[in-house]
Amino acid sequence: MRIINKFGISRDLLIGFVGLTIFMLGATIETGWFSSYLVSEGFSIKDVSFMFTLYGMSVAIMSWITSFLINKYSIKHTMAVGVISLLITTGILILGLNKNNFLLIICAYTFRGISYPLFAYSFLVLITLRVRTSNLGKATACFWLSFNLGMTIIGPSLSAKLLNYISPIDLLCIGCVFCVLGASLVFTIKNVRTVDKNTTLLQELKKGLFIMAEDSRFFYGMIVKTINNIGQFGFIIMMPIYLVQHQFTLIQWSTIWSACYIINSFASLYFGNLGDKIGWQKVLIYFSGTLTGVSCLVIMLGAKFFPGNYILMLCSFTLFAFGVAAFGPLSALIPAMMPNDKSTAVSVLNLGSGLSNFVGPIIVTLIFQKFGGDIVLIVFSVLYFFSSILSKKLKLK
Questions:
Q1: How do residues 187-217 score in pLDDT, each as one tens digit?
Q2: Chain centroid, CA 224 distance in Å
Q3: Residue 368 near residue 235 (C-beta atoms within 8 A)
Q4: Which of 358, 380, 356, 357 has its CA nearest to residue 368?
Q5: Could you report the per-residue pLDDT of 347-385, keeping only the tens digit for each?
Q6: What's phi and psi for 340, nearest 5 deg?
Q7: Which of these, 58, 271, 321, 349, is most buried using a 10 Å CB contact count?
Q8: N-term to C-term CA, the chain
Q9: How far apart are CA 36 and CA 237, in angstroms?
Q10: Angstrom distance (rounded) from CA 133 to CA 397
Q11: Vertex 316, ends 314 and 322: CA angle to 5°?
């Protein structure tokens, strides 16, 4: 009860955060093993990579559209579509796996990318509407904590253990059970009316584009949010190869990455609270891109001059985890820029979140093989430093 009072979060929202963790666990339960499983089943690496690219594009598009669907059809209706689409695409995906039909698999997995953005980012809009501004930094930090707990911490470790006892197809079915259970908890939250019967989806989409054209702060905010997670989605592709080249093992990498996001999840709460106290923009300027930019350089120098030094690399990624967490107040700052239409403002955040699924891997794909991991880390570092500079533009009027 003290925690609830301190964070200014109602009891039903707290239950919702637990539900979000469970939902994300189920919706992304395959991310840690699905690519290797498909390759082991005889599909080419090129085809599998293409499939994940389509999945990332689907996530990016749906992340942006979610807020507009909310304005047209309501928060809970949009979330329900996310749950239903996940159940349907999982069924088609299992059918494709049983028949060894890659066309069916790639279609199902592409459309699976619409599921969690519809559900999770609708919940983010609900939070921005329900929580008062003074506590919004802490509340959005709790959102990203729940989101990452399900997607990057509990999900991968749980699925890795379950695969020792059950088949991948059975695990996909269990993921559906988690999704339904998590969604049922989130649906207990009191709804907030967002429907505008006089608008059309096309008008909402236009409004989402015009807001970035008319007020450059929102465009800059979208860029900063895109840069936020390029490391998360780029490192999972590059680091298993890059670190092995520098005398680390895959087991060491996996433990470093798990520890990184455990630290990140709780650091998000700290920076959310700090942002509410000293100002969200100050946290972004002084901590977010600065810490992540420095960490990328430290990772590069550590691997180059101290190959195989596990403790040093763990410390380097810990610094990266703190830097990524310091981007959290952006989820409070952007909606506060447009208090009268927060769902449209959140669409900017969602677009950036979705684009990072695409931009991070693309940078690695274009640079890593040709120029090496050191250049990728330098590019990431420059982008992160640039994001802190760009954050100076994100002023509240």
A1: 988 766 555 556 666 666 677 677 888 888 9
A2: 14
A3: no
A4: 380
A5: 888 788 878 877 888 888 788 878 989 999 999 999 999
A6: -85, -10
A7: 349
A8: 35
A9: 12
A10: 14
A11: 100
| SS3 of the chain | CHHHHHHCCCHHHHHHHHHHHHHHHHHCCCCCCHHHHHHHCCCCHHHHHHHHHHHHHHHHHHHHHHHHHHHHHCHHHHHHHHHHHHHHHHHHHHHHHHHCCHHHHHHHHHHHCCHHHHHHHHHHHHHHHHCCHHHHHHHHHHHHHHHHHHHHHHHHHHHHHHCCCCCHHHHHHHHHHHHHHHHHHHCCCCCCCCCCCCCCHHHHHHHHHHHHHHCHHHHHHHHHHHHHCHHHHHHHHHHHHHCHHHCCCHHHHHHHHHHHHHHHHHHHHHHHHHHHHHCHHHHHHHHHHHHHHHHHHHHHHHHHHCCCCHHHHHHHHHHHHHHHHCCCCHHHHHHHHCCCCHHHHHHHHHHHHHHHHHHHHHHHHHHHHHHCHHHHHHHHHHHHHHHHHHHHHCCCC
Residue corresponding to tokens 């390759």:
39
Sign of CA dihedral 227, 218, 276, 11: negative
Residue type for 20, please?
A: L
> Tokens in use for 62?
């749906």
For residue 35, give the amino acid letter.
S
**Token pair 């519809």: residue:** 118
